[in-house]
Amino acid sequence: MRNLSQSIALLCLLISVTHGQSRVAPTPPMGWNSWDAYGPTVTEAEVKANADYMSRHLASFGWKYIVVDIQWYEPNAQKHGYRANAELITDGYGRLLPAPNRFPSSANGRGFKPLADYVHSKGLKFGIHIMRGIPRQAVRTNLPVFGSSLRAKDIADEQNICPWNTDMYSVRADTPGGQAYYNSIVKMYAAWGVDYIKADDMAAFNGKPADASRLAEIAALSRAITNSGRPMVLSLSPGPASIDQAEFLKTHSQLWRISDDFWDRWQDLKKQFEYTRRWAGREGTNSYPDADMLALGRIGIRAERGDDRQTRFTREEQVTLMTLWSIFRSPLMFGGDLPSNDAFTLSLLTNREVLEVDQHSKNNRELFVRGNIVAWTADAGRGRDKYLAVFNIGDDPDPAPVKVSLAEIGLKGSCRVRDLWQNEDLSVIQLELQTTVPRHGAKLFTLSP
Prior knowledge:
The chain has helices at 2-22, 35-38, 44-58, 113-121, 136-140, 152-155, 176-192, 212-228, 246-252, 266-279, 315-328, 343-349, 352-360; strands at residues 30-33, 65-68, 125-131, 134-135, 156-161, 168-171, 196-200, 204-205, 208-209, 233-236, 255-257, 288-290, 298-299, 309-310, 332-334, 362-370, 373-379, 386-392, 400-405, 414-419, 424-430, 432-437, 442-448. By secondary structure, it is α/β, with parallel strands linked by helices. α9 (246-252) links the parallel β10 and β11.
């Protein structure tokens, strides 16, 4: 009877955890990631400063994740590229630990728990970046695998490596030892209080779809999160992910990148129209194609690419970025240094009506492309209202005239129009909407029949 009771309790716990994982991201996650501003070099003080800012200025608008990006375990990480074969901080089982010189609260084996506790005390959630596989130095010294009788050399695939970083070897994830390794690192992250994992060198490589070994490691990491007993968002990078693998990605993660790294260049933003068109309609509760981070505000402070600067996007292009991400329902991960925000940047992140489109709209789709004019539409979260986004991706300096008939978006008769960026009611229209859109700019409306 005792064994039966224990089995039932274990089954109930597993069902509870699995259910929690299936609802860990009911809307596209919104947060901050250290990559665009600090590359691999961010420090504990900088993470706390961004958490403080988010708590004060953004949390009430739905922003909640604070994510430490790559190489938090590298004591001598540098801007403008990775140090080849760098010595990393690990425990005796080859599990990466925060570098204490950059994250002082992690000393004496405390890991990220003190920093996660600090972020949680602000009413926010804490995330980390990880690389696929096991540290190469753990394989060189053949450390034991926690929870297994195997050692690092037994589970590593030394021929399968990341094409752009020398820290890790692939793990043979379809073996018991490989799964044990992923279980061991995620169990440690759960003990730290991690809420979000960004897993890199997973969703694609060298512009090609994830191969069999990457798919196996995605599945192993997903199982490890479920086994850990702590719901965590799983975000997969880099892109572009393959649309042919969409169902697999939806099953095993909450976010997956649809493009390569996105930076503050118009050509990058223009290219996103192709990616979002391809992935339109693939989002769902707990699963979102990810158009990558918001390269806005002050970036490049100690980044892997570029130098300290304000985003090179014009104000019109910044509105286009936020409008496209929102009408597509991409996750929103801000990349700039939050304490450096000016009033305009803050206004982009705190427009409740625009954020509502990202968080709760439905049936999001591209409506048409007419020359340099692109239009998207979506249904409002409730009622019969429709959202309409119009973009001018042309280079002519003069604003472009735009006409959209109500019939094109499934409406007829008359409609009330509201400009969401201006938070302003406009006129009642009959049959069609007419407006002008500046070069590289966008407008976003609600149409209410």
